[in-house]
Structures
1.
Amino acid sequence: MNNDIPPVAQKAQLAKSLTLITIGALAVLGGIAFAATGISYATIARVILGAASGPGNVPRGAESLAGNFPGILMRLRFCAAGFMLAALLTAIYRRAFSRWIAEAVFPLPRFLANAIRHSVAVLHADSRLHFWMLLTLCLLGAMLRVWFLFDPVSFDEADTLLSYASRPLYVGLSWYPQPNNHLFHTLLLHFAWRLFGDAEWAIRLPALCAGIVLIPVTYWAARVLYEQHAALIAAALVAAAPSLVSFSVNGRGYTLVCVFFLLLLIIGRYLLEHESPPAWLLWALVAALGFYTIPIMLYAASTAMLWLGLSACRSDALRSRRQLLTRLGSALVVTGIGTTVLYLPVVIASGVTPLFANGYVQSRTFSYVFANFPESFEKTWYLLTADVPGPFVFVLTAAFAIALVYHRDTNGYGVPVPLAAAVCIPVLVLIQRVVPFARVWLFLVPLCSIVSAAGLWLPGQLLASRSVSRGSHLAVAIALSCFLLMGVAGLYGESISSRSALPGIEDIAIWMKGNLAPRDVVVVGFPATAPLAYYLRRHGIPLESRPAPCDPMSTVYSANAWFRAWPVSGETRVLAVVTDQWHSPKTVLATACLAANTEFASKRIYTRPGMHVYERYVGPGVH
């Protein structure tokens, strides 16, 4: 009987059914959230604290839960009310919601499949040389990244695994004590850890995959914003850029943000010429995933949004301009709703303060922002140009400027994206009154590579206009030259290898396994704390741990279960793990309140690259 119903009518009926299911699901979620407010603290502590416990984190987890429990109940009530309100609004506007499902949600899988087929077809149509060269760049870029994949872990990587990704998802995706938890990356890392274990390469797998995917995505972004030859050069620059190589082997979410930013530009370019509800939905979903990865997606998404709006304003047709801006506003609403839903576990369990008022995003004075601007700019410039030879930096900078000045001559589309970034980013920074870390601007590296590649190719357009094959060969030669120049510079430079200043941390963990006496105490200062905890755990070295009494960022370890309180009694050997870059024996011991209470001078007993172990004795009766 259903075969007699036209496909359009079937789709409309299915959309209405999904609308009713959505209304029911929202109402049920509201009821569950309200019922959850009746759960006692003892039940929550029994379930969650057992999963949240870990080396050095049981007190912190317990204090966090105990302090936030009344707030959790209050936020659950607000959440229940929000779900009920959403169910009511969906019911009131059920016809518009059903129409949106039929026009945007149902066609999305087919739209994605067609986009992939079109991308492959266009790449084949460019030339076989382009196809094989892009594939070669992807392989070379992957090899360059794998070279650094097995370096010792940094503090942020180890802390991400130990504090979030190795815990149950309901803990890792809701506990947000600081912005170190890149939630979407934590989700991916959790599954990588489950499948492949906790080796260095495994915890860097999501960032590595994103870093490799960034190469073809850069090609496609450059192709839709400029043209195919510039795209090949841009892919080569991104494949070898030392900063991108470094963050591709750093188990964090920054390379994911780079990919999402370029995807917004690619989809936006399509939307400027096509009216496509599924494309708008895809734009919103990509933006929401970017925000779910790191909130700094605000800068990347705002740049893409402003570029899309400015390019739309250049349209000759007033009606199409208004329609596109209206669609953009709707997409921003969907992005906001999607981001809110994704962050609900964090908001309920941790509140909004860690998101909007943590120490890294708290507003400063304007004088502070302007006083620290030169240093911030210097670090950002280093991020963009690290290990790149000075003459080539000059060439790339000049090419970047040429591409902006001669935007039309480079076959550039719409408004130059860097113009949108130059307008919105300073405004956002001044509104927030913050001085972001240099790594926040990593998403600008592929953008600058694309624009510089367009400027590099501008002289080559003359040759390409005379002979297509000669133009392709010239583009391949320039791309290979750029990759070799930047790749070799990064391979033997300092920016990537210095990503971890703790090259001997694993050796120290292994040394402890065979050299700690029962009553020995180990004191470790930040930032060696999380990496040492990671390698102690990986090598199965059971040590009791607790925050250092005079510096909670440092850690005190002992091999015995009696280690419950500080100070210790009786004669005790205290081992201080010291790094060349950050510590001295005195500063490390001071974190345990032992700077003056020692009988003997510190003695170096073990040395590894960049790190040392010092020995001191605490006499009996010291309190």
2.
Amino acid sequence: MTPVFLFAHQDDEFATFSALQMYLRQGVQPVCVYLTDGGAGGQNIKRRNDESLTVMQALGVEPERVIFLGGDHGIPDGKLSAHLDEVFSRLLACLELVIADAIHLYIPAWEGGHQDHDAAHLVGLALMKHKNLDKDVWQFSLYHGRSLPGILFKVLSPLKENGPSELIPSSLNERIRFLRFIFSYRSQLKTWIGLGPFVAFKLLFGRGQFRQPVSRDRCFERPHPGRLLYEKRGASVFEEFSQSAAGFIDRYVGLGDAKKGMNDSSFQIKPVQIQWQVLLALFVLALATRMMVALGWPEKGGDYSLYVPVAENILNNFCISYSPVEGGLCEPHWGGSHPPGFPIFIAAVWAVFGQSDVAIRWAQVAVEGIALVWFVRAIAVYSGVARAGIAAGLLIALSPLQIPYARFISTEILAVAAALWVFAEVLLSFAEKKLRVVPLGLAVTAAFFLRYDGAVICGLVALAAFLIHRPVEAIWRGALVAMILSVFVGGWIGRNVSVGLTPLPPSQAELHHLPKGLFKWCASWMTSQYDWPRWYYPMQHGKKYSKIRIPDRAYISDEEKQRVETLLKELSRYDGQVAPSQIDQAFENLLEDRKQNAPLRHYLVDPVKGVLHMLFNPYYSMGWPTPAGNVDHDERDKLMAQGVAGKIQLALNNPVDALIRGGGFIYRLGIWALFLAGALFMGRIAPRWLKILWLFSLSYMALRSLFFGALSIVDSRFLLQGYAYMETTVAAGLYYWAVRRKDKQVNL
């Protein structure tokens, strides 16, 4: 019988010197196959081949029986798990040429030391099944980090999980000779400075080297409890490695007897779980931070007066109506300027806890806490790094961007919760390698029924579908998600039509009986959320047209300015009344002239300015209570127009405001800086799960920014969900970077 030794890299043979010598003493020539090129970090492949060949010849192995399969076919060092099918097929081909009889097989142990060692183990299992080898298959330990802190490791120490060990004895003279071979690996000086002393100790004071039997069932388990050495070094994570190898295992390894009730196509990764106590602590932390602010500085929010009457009608009259609840008139309504998800939520809370604003605040924060916990778990399951999920959860729980909106009875908190739910289902879809149709359909539906802009998140679902599946399958599964959403949306539209309403709610201007032409003209130049008080608030609160103030930067020409001022002077005569149609039409005509005379500004420059304002507005309070938040806008504009000196004076006049707004601006800049710096980290270094977090966070922020910029709705709070994604990515990335920095990679 011919002994066959599989090695991941040149120099891995050090772990089998005793076994090789045993066969050579018997006059049996082994076959040694190296499965990768050994070229990690730009190593000279030929030099590494020559070093191992020198050692093999010194042992007595014939050169023609040493096969550098990985080097011959460009199998990259560190990436063996991505090339298992190719390696296995080429291995079978080359073995057929050199071996005619049965074999003894030696493969690297399943021990979590180096990801390529474990991948070579899988190739060995496939060969074991292909050759119908029930025995005479052995594994040899190289190194692992079981029960050791950091990147410390044990060498030539078989794991007890791999079964009983059998000693292959060597004489002291042979072991001294083996020790001298170590000095042949000169290209690996850095590696052997760390590895050599421990190997030398084992060789000099041991009686030989060990081998263990092989069980196919072991490849369905983590090699040992705790973090694996290659995880500590940041080279890979077990779940990612297993997902990469799952198809190969299904095809060529199969399942052992211990996997009863499963078949070869049902291979699943055992997900990393976070202890429930940790998840509960995150939930309590998020709840506590938000409720401290919510109870200390409560605000009703701008749309409170719109949502609450609808919720009261749902609770008391079982109808969606804006009519006074007394008398049960129930004049049909759409449920507000958005779908009726938030009023339905309020009514449900009141039905259980009684009609109070405090109950709403507690309930919406609790829902966000639950979504956060589910999202943290999803990160842990997909990444295989529980602490990365915990780091993300901590930052969201303590985020100065996310906490203050708990003060308001508005859609913001629940919109963030829905966005986290959708992202969690996307990550779990990646973990399971198939789109989770039903949970995603329900999550997207929840996002949409809270606010129309929730539909933007469908872009992420589509992206996930095409990254996980082939195009046809992606389209099919995406369509199923859309069907779930359409069932609920269709039911809502059907209800609207059946009671005599339009299928969808009218525009904001129509809903509040505001002049549409004036509304659209003002929105066309709006590049700052601080423009709302100049024109929208006077119209919304009592139709006080005489209070409208248009800044000079809004105009594209002196002629437009003159026409607008004339129209506003005429319109001021109708304060408190519906604007005359001829004046409103004149503003509509102004908008059309604007599109024709300044198309670049209308379609590109102003929308881009609006998006940049949303992203980097330095005066955004982030929802925190600001004592001078109601400073007269004319006074503020006057100081702001004085340049730096005026802004400093404004800050000195309102120091608490300046601290809140300035601190928030610095925080957001910091998130952006760390997030964009992460792009430099995303190459070969970052694991795939972190790249997915980064890609989806960037995509979602871009989609939301473009959506609101195109509509000239440039309020920074509408990017809250996007910032939640970015914050989780930054937190998980910082944790991964810190661990990688602490556990500096040693190329063993």
3.
Amino acid sequence: MTKKLAKPNARGLRPLEKGINPETGKAKVFWLPTDEREAERRKAAIEALYTAEGVQWNAVSVHVAMAIARGDKTMIVDADADIQALQSKYPWVTFVWPQEIAEARQQEAKKLLTDRLGTMRGQCLPSFGQLRPRTDDEILRVVAVTELEDNAVEPALIDATDRAFGNGTAAHVRKNCDSLLHSLRAFKGSLHQAIDAYAKAAKEKHVSMDDGLPTEFALAEERFCGFMKRIFADMPLAKYDLAAIDSLRLTIKKRPLSYRKKPIAPETVHRLVKVLNRFHSWLHKSPDFSWRKPLDYEVERVNVQLTNAEIQERYNPHNTPIYTEEQIRILFKYATPMERVLILLALNCGFRQAEALGLQSGEYDLAAKLLARVRYKTKVYGQWRLWDVTCEALRWAEGYRPNKNEATLIQTRAGQPMGRRTKSGNRGAKIANKWASLHRRIEKDHEDFPSYPFSTLRDTGASAIRAIAGGEVAEMYLSHGNPIPDGVLLERYANKPWGRLHEALTQWGSKIGAAFKVDDAFPADYKPSNISVSKGTIEKIRKLQAQGYKVAKIAELAGCPYHIARVYAKAD
């Protein structure tokens, strides 16, 4: 039970005995004022301090308690004392240095903050002029509080805040300099933080209407932003001036090493420069950063220097790899039925991965042998005369797809569109994986078979159509934007010569038709097999079996396990 206050003595002071004095080892007596209400308040504060100290006094806490008993608001400490630590531990009084030391440190702190202000003015603060700042003293307060709230990039500025302006600085700034404080706080930050913010904003802005995920453009922006962070050191936005921008452009122009430890491609250089320009435009307008484009800032074109090998590859008209008719025959022979569908769409219609995976069942007419659709990338309409083998392939794909209610033709075994993106929004690698698997099967029997990407089929078709009907028809086959240079208005007044393209496709299809002669190319009862046996081995097994060899001998001569020979040997 709390003891009642003692009666005042002859001097009008009330004695309060609490704990042991660490300096004398005797009971410590504090003297409270005569006023009963004030005495109760000071007594409660002393008891709270005593409890917080673990029911014992130390050399500091006993003097704090004595100051509370006297009613002192402040307590003078030595010059080397840690005021912030003391203030945090003993909030009942305000700790101050002796007057002469406080005045010296205040001047030192103001000089430090003034230097900081001058640096910010000189490097990066057109915002000071735009915001109509108050006095320099108020701006100094803003600088100090901004540094303080930023967990002190420069620790000395934390101490400088209280030394220069005393307690209440933050409240004063928030009340009188809100706009300037927001500007300075927004201006703080680094180049890498701004790049990350831009990448995030791009993913939030560019969202696909089909699946609600970031578009491939947004994901590409994110990848390029990550690469820029890797090749350019972080720095405060205050130092990201015209010289820094030119330095970053020069770094990109020099073609730094990619993640594969090779110089980035010339096309990548141009794309990085475009991303950098978009980043500057976004940063200039962003409300979260006060960075502004330098006065002499210009969007500059970057000229990339090519090696001799790159010049030969780029400008030699015979350097575009294409498949020969024999190579097409091998591809078709070793492919699975689904891979044959993709091969025919690429050759007959000039489809790349995105077009093949996005094909809908209502975009072709097998009776009329015609496929017509708008290419998603270029928004250009195209139509193609289908070969008989292509119609057979599409008819098989319609029956093979697990989910008949899904309009997308090319599906996975689970009935999902094969072109569906991953949860993170990245494009799937289904066709790339199938193409790599097909090449591995071929290379078991044909070691020197060229390892071209899937898009080479499209290049092969374009080269053949160009040789037959010319460049304009080849552009129509590829669904490029405008097949005739400077002929934008012509598209409004004249139809494209689709008949010429159809005739060229028919002529080329007749020429390479023999490459598609495969027994039962699209079996109705097809089931995927996990047994990895090359076509050459299977043909050898069946040839030996036709010659009358037993399974054991067939396995020996064909160089395969017994159970494989037994599976593929035909019964009599």
